[in-house]
Amino acid sequence: MSPSRIITIVLVVGLAAHARADDVADAKAYYKEGTQLYKAGSYRAAITAFENAYRKKPHGAIHYNIAQCREKLAEWPAALRSYHDYLRELPDAKDRPAVLATMRGIEQKLAATGVQVLLVYTDPLGAEVRIDQKPKGTTPFHIVLPPGQYTVSFSREGYAVASREVTLTASASQVVDVVLRPAVATPVPLPPPPVAAQAAGPDLAAKPPPAASPATVAAPAPKPAAAPQVKKGRVWTWVAAGVSAVALGTAAYYGMHAKSKSDELLDGTVRGAGEAAALADDAESSAKKANIMYGVAAAGAAAGAALFFVEGSF
Hints:
single chain, alpha+beta, 3 domains, 4-stranded antiparallel β-sheet
């Protein structure tokens, strides 16, 4: 079992360059509250605080802290789920071997009681889960079951129903991760062809209309050729679109750079105060640049949309 500890997170804007400043501030407050409650032994209240922090500012390390609280409360299935969520969101975590060893220890505890945990995920999330045709919840989802064979099905509006056959053993938990496919629209049948003229009656079908006298038939006057319309190209529309695309790419670069520096700050390496401050400053500076470029990209897109209609009207 891993030693009792919680992960400290430095919440900077670089973790999500375009996040709202209020959400970051709230996440910091909730995270600090959860840390204090954990140290005080109020594990249930700490879980609530950590979950609130995650909702405001998702970060995989928060799952680890929730798992530590679940272990303190001997809630083994939920602890196993939180550890799995931690490794799912941070697959390159430095303590991955230790966390996997902890998870195996929990699975052994569950095996001794004759049950195991089934962990279910879908992309996108929010799919209804049915086990042997019985509704059980929505993804992400976990349930404790005895070993055996189960049919797990998933349904979500706008997506095709998916199903998996799952064998749950007595020795280890089982993870089911399904990518849902968009539902195929049912083709609308074409209306029947119009009824032929013969159906109106034999007289109408048999008697052609009287032919007009040659003297009374006037040749149609030729129509004057329409003058060709010359449309101006949407030059400024494409200029605005190009500016928006370049700004978006630049924003993405700075956002990834900010996240990289933030992840480096959180990788568990012991650093001096100066080095840690430099990493935090770099992450925050890149995040601010990303925010500025996201704004430029949004303005360019809005201008392009307006110019598209303005230039198209000439």
